[in-house]
Amino acid sequence: MVVPRTLRLLRGARNTSPPLQVRCDFDKVGRAKSTASVGSIGDESKTLNAPSQHAQELPPHSLLPNKMLLRSLLVATISSRPWLLTPALKMLQSLVHPRLSFVDVDKNPLLRSILKRTFYNHFCAGENRDEVQSTISNIKDMGFKGVILTYAREIVVDATGPASKSGASVSDQSFKEESAKDQGIEDWKEGVLETVNMIGEGDILALKLTGAGESAMKALAANTPLPDQLMDALQQICTRAVDRNARIFIDAEQQSVQTGIDTVALDLMRKYNTNGTAVVFNTYQAYLKSTPNTVKAHLDIAEKEKFTLGIKLVRGAYINSEPRDLINDTKPETDNSYNFIAASIIRQRYGTIGGNSPFPSTELFLATHNRESALMADRLVKEQLAGGLQPPKIQYGQLLGMADGVSCKLLQIGNESTDKSRSVAPEVFKCLSWGSLGDCLSYLLRRAVENRDAVGRTKEEYLGLRRETFRRLRRGFM
Ligand SMILES: Cc1cc2nc3c(=O)[nH]c(=O)nc-3n(C[C@H](O)[C@H](O)[C@H](O)COP(=O)(O)OP(=O)(O)OC[C@H]3O[C@@H](n4cnc5c(N)ncnc54)[C@H](O)[C@@H]3O)c2cc1C
After folding, report:
1. Which residues constitute the signal peptide according to the record (predicted)?
2. What CA–CA distance (Å, rounded) separates 70 from 60?
3. Residues 6+ apart with CB under 8 A from 367
4. Centroid of ligand 1 to alpha carbon of 389 (angstroms)
5. Which end of the chain is more exposed for a tag (fewer CB within 10 A), N or C?
6. What is the pLDDT of residues 170-200, one digit of tens each?
7. What is the span of the domain harbouring residue 185?
8. In a domain? residue 451
């Protein structure tokens, strides 16, 4: 059942226009977990896709290869039990900053081997080109449309540091002088160019701009032009990605640097998104009160300047470190905001944009582990098509090792599509991080924390994996 609801979203940090009033007419979707809402979305998707009897019987996790299933079950068993996860988290923390050589993965081969075969292989793509390519082809063999690849080495943004406090008071000139001899930018560029060389047509490169180091971070925090060396690096990276028919995601980060990131992303979109498709995507975090307005402002700019707005929609990963007042007060508010933005783009009506006025060219990438948001979007796309309307290109993505139940459900919907609806089968991606075991430790720690914080989903994932393992055991793992 659909219940209209008005959300008054407050003015926030990224945008100074009056608050956008959004009507969220799928209130049940994504609000406090309700079995009825999950059921109704799933049922509608099934009806729309008319799956075969056989396909209906198979659970989503049936798409996982045996090895992946068993590794996932091991990780999910640990993640879904606080008495196992808490010591595992403590251990990971001590590995990130080892004080004894016994817990240093570069000095203890046994520890390294155990970690590599379990957590690392579950969440990460590989330490070198051969390992990464092998992971990519396994993912594509499962039916995924492609991969989003990112280089794991990163610096941690200090949101309380002088860069973010002093803001624009740091002059452009000083950035340029610093960057002339900036090894951080050079190392980042080499790593990212190596990453681009590993992806193929239709794949996506994910860029974390603060990964370029201190001078990049300062310029982003002050929202001043990036150092010339970094601009040249970005130019080379984008050109190489375009040559390989790949696309680029600019990741969203902390608010202290986000206005600067938005500026860079819009500039790249102006340059590369000019022929009706999106090569570059900016990331929008639905947990921010300001995001519905930010999206509206960027839609206006795209329409005025005639480029395609690439929208990668996430809920937001920095809730524990951001000023709390910038973020929606509750999870259901974030869910509503996420679903509102997604539905408005799919329906090509966003506040006063669309309807009688033209809607800008857009492409939407839903980066989410939330089953309800993903299935709602798929249902809306099909509704639009059934009504003779053309929604924008829409794709879905989940992190490697996370929410396989959601990824596989979307793949199943695609597999079950009739020939007529095959052209609208959901296109699903897995997001992979690559890098040495040492480089990926912080990334592994974040995944463990995310699993701890998403208790309900982690448990659901564990139960799905356990059911599938028993199903295969009964059939002798054939
Ligand atoms: C492919 C991919 C790319 C990503 N890229 C980025 C990126 O560039 N930048 C980035 O920031 N994140 C990124 N993320 C992470 C993302 O922002 C989320 O942290 C993560 O996906 C969990 O959200 P969810 O949509 O999967 O759903 P859920 O698990 O249903 O939602 C969890 C999220 O809800 C929000 N939330 C939780 N509690 C509250 C509360 N009390 N009040 C308000 N909001 C709350 C938080 O954002 C939390 O992460 C990416 C995720 C994926 C899958």
Report:
1. none
2. 15
3. 283, 312, 313, 314, 396, 397, 398, 431
4. 30
5. C
6. 344 444 444 456 898 999 999 999 999 999 9
7. 6-474
8. yes
> Cβ neighbours of residue 112 under 8 Å, at least 6 residues apart?
105, 106, 437
Which amino acids bring their CB within 6 angstroms of ligand 1? 148, 251-252, 283, 285, 287, 314-319, 327-328, 330-331, 334, 367-370, 397-399, 431, 454, 457
User: What does the pLDDT average to over 217-246?
Assistant: 96
Specify the ligand 1 atom closest to the Cα of 316. 17
The lowest-confidence range among 57-71, 90-104, 152-166, 372-386 is 152-166
CATH of the domain at 101: 3.20.20.220
Residue 431 covered by a domain: yes
Q: Which residues are CB-neighbours of 229 under 8 A, at least 6 positions away?
A: 179, 180, 182, 185, 186
Residue 215 CA, ligand 1 centroid: distance in Å: 27
Distance 388 CA to ligand 1 centre (A): 33
**Atom 16 of ligand 1, nearest CA residue:** 316
> What confidence score (pLDDT) does residue 433 get?
96
Task: List C-alpha distances in Å: 349 to 60, 137, 177, 227, 345.
Answer: 33, 38, 46, 38, 6
Distance 244 CA to ligand 1 centre (A): 29
Tell me the pLDDT tens digit for each residue of 272-314.
999 999 999 999 999 999 999 999 999 999 999 999 999 999 9
Per-chain mean pLDDT for the chain:
84
Assess if residue 27 is contained within a domain: yes
Counted domains in the chain: 1
CA of 346 to the centre of ligand 1 (A): 20
335/29 Cα distance (integer angstroms): 8
Q: How confident is the model at residue 32 (pLDDT cuts 50, 70, 90)?
A: very low
Select from 256, 314, 446 the residue to mutate for testing ligand 1; criterion: most ligand atoms less than 8 Å from CB.
314
Residue 1 lies in a domain: no
